[in-house]
Design goal:
The chain is mostly helical. It is built from 20 helices and six strands. A two-stranded antiparallel ribbon has the order 1-2. Strands 3-4 form a two-stranded antiparallel sheet. The chain is globular, with a radius of gyration of 23 Å. The two termini are 33 Å apart.
Length: 553
Amino acid sequence: MSDTAAGLLQAGFLILCLAAVYRPLGGYMARTYESGKDLRVERGMYKLFGVDARADQTWAVYGRSLIAFSAASLVLLFLLQRLQHWLPLSLGLPSVPNGIAFNTAASFVTNTNWQSYSPEATMGHLVQFAGLAVQNFVSAAVGMTVVIALIRGFTRSKTDRVGNFWVDLTRTLLRILLPMAVIGGLALVAMGVVQNFSGGHEVTSVVGQTQTIPGGPVASQEVIKELGTNGGGFYNANSAHPFENPNGLSNLFEIFLLLVIPVCITRTFGLMVKDKRQGYAILGVMGTLWAAFTFAATFFENRGAGTATQAAGAAMEGKETRFGEWASALFASSTTGTSTGAVNSAHDSFTPLGGGTALFHMMLGEVTPGGTGSGLYGMLVLAILAVFVAGLMVGRTPEYLQKKITAREMKLVSLYILTTPTIVLAGASIAMGLASARASIFNTDSPHGFSEVLYAFTSAGNNNGSAFGGLSANTPFFNTALGLAMLLGRFVPILFVLALAGSLAKQQPVPVTQGTLPTHKALFVTLLVGTVLIVTGLTYFPALTLGPLAEGL
């Protein structure tokens, strides 16, 4: 079988698997958030922590609860790393230095999972599973609570309440993420992913040298790494490491895991707003853009210029030969479109335009289909912008899901859209202006050096976590600057989304008339695709011309 046929079969089988679980999983998540009943274990937790499960919160209280929970998580994860040398299962490793500890805590709490260190040489087993893996669960759950609050903003009227953060968080963890992680973790173990508490395995390399590769609870962290669109690996090689991703089947399963919730939550949205067509429309936009970027990445990696590339038949530098260029491009497109950041190949070794495709994909705002929850609320914000543009064209007040889009909503949408580009472009500009930061660039004599810096801040600001490995980011400047970019890029937009939810919830639904733009048809899908691309292109095109476009052309 040719590589092309095998690659097409992989992509087709992946889409079939996602289609098979779309209705049942999307419906299950909708029932989870709309249910008026609490499980016994949930009632016990509410009683223990003093939570009134029947008390809905305003968007401001909801936001304060979320920020307080995340701040406590940040402090606890930081302390866990700093105290590692006193903890059991540390494997004799010292405490994590302050700079890395802050950066890592910010990274995992914000669902970014940027790693400027070698995990197996820096973190013991306890920090890995009690610190990093736990944050993989709760940071994913936080993103899902936000989009549920926004959906309630569309479905409720004449109220200032958008739900209860603690109830949404608990249900997301206990009813959705944990059961799926248990099943997925067992599947990964069956496929060969390591799961133990071993201090190391002696192996002999192809040149006859021996080395010790640490074992550990890899499968349990790997499953939520993908399922929660986190991306932080147990090993420095991430999903290119055979202990994390041993074969082609596990590779395809991991891609499925990182896409399944962002894809299926569009059905949850359609069911909760009582119009399944709205969910299909949003899914259509996400799917169209994901397919386009997957095709572009695959094309550039298969048709890369250069003598060595043509002799090998494709751009194989930095690729795992177990997977090849098709599976590597599929993984790269899926991970940069879902805020996952996991990699099964070295993105820094992609062709200039192939790497630029991954970079541009992140710049869309991680909405194709985006992270758990964050992808959908990002796309809904862009949908509001699209109906506003359409309203300007026909000269009437824009409406979306029977809610008027007034000046207040558009101010919040504008602030949301401007936040991440400001963080990314300002951060990259400051880094390029400081000699100490420029010293971290490996490729100082080509546009690729700028691409490495731009990729780092794009990854941090959009809470992705993947990287161009040529940048030595474990420095005081980058640990601090990227940590702040991750925190601001996560929580400032979340507060704007929650404020938008509260504003929409106060409105009374307006009736649908002949002048109302149908937001479930192909015309709106096309408009929204164009909005996503144009807004992103106008914002980032000058920076892209200095990096991947200059290098590739």
